[in-house]
Amino acid sequence: MAVDWSKRATWHWAMALLVALSVAWIALSRADPVSMGEGAAADPLPRKGYVAPDLRLQTLNGEMVSLSDLRGQVVILNFWATWCPACRTEMPALDQVYRAYRDQGLEVVAVNVQEDPAGTEAFVQELGLDLPVLVDLDGTVSTRYRVTSLPTTYVIDRAGVIREVTVGGPLSRAYLASTVTPLLAEKGGE
User: Fold this and answer.
1) What's the CA gap between 75 and 160, in Å, rounded?
2) Phi, psi at residue 161, to the nearest 5°?
3) Which of 37, 39, 80, 177 shows the greatest Cβ crowding within 10 Å of its Cβ?
4) Cα–Cα distance, 112 to 89 (Å, whole number)
5) For residue 59, what are the β-bridge partners?
């Protein structure tokens, strides 16, 4: 029986091309969007060890706050809602840690997700909170941060790098303090 070398060569080339395309697909799908340069990804996945995506929202008082303006401070970025039991439980702990460490460079940014500002304001007044509360009325920022569960908390160092991500709660005052204390001791950022 004679071997048809033209069919065999075609088969080998097709397999080599398939292997090359598979390797290329794996390499590209595993590439980190942050390291691919500007414009490579509109919204890189916010995760531990990477720079936090910027956000710009209004406080309940109408003041605009940007995460980039807080560079040089340690930031606890907390996504929450008044209907969320764990959020309601951890809010006093967030406020206590904010009051205890704000003079050392801690900023707590509590982002209320898609709730009426009047109801949010009533909740803040009821608990006597000092921490800044921002309002994400249309959910744009929570979507950018891939928030799928409330509360979701990001701890960001002075250089703007996410150091901790916690989905769920409630977070205790002791946990929050033990997380931010070493970051506050670090110098740098600006």
Assistant:
1) 8
2) -95, 135
3) 80
4) 15
5) 134
What 126-133 contacts at long range (C-beta under 8 Å, 24+ apart), as own/partner pairs, is 127/91, 127/92, 127/95, 128/95, 129/91, 129/92, 129/95, 130/95, 130/98, 130/99, 131/94, 131/95, 131/98, 132/59, 132/65, 132/107, 132/108, 133/59, 133/60
Mean pLDDT value of segment 160-181? 93
Q: Which has the closest alpha carbon to 161: 138, 137, 186? A: 186
At residue 100, the pLDDT reads 95
Predicted confidence at residue 48, as pLDDT, reads 87
Residue 69 DSSP symbol:
G
Give the model's pLDDT for residue 36: 40
Domain spans, the chain: 1-31, 56-185
What superfamily in CATH does domain 56-185 come from? Glutaredoxin (3.40.30.10)
Tens-place pLDDT, residues 105-163: 999 999 999 999 999 999 999 999 999 999 999 999 998 999 998 999 999 999 999 99
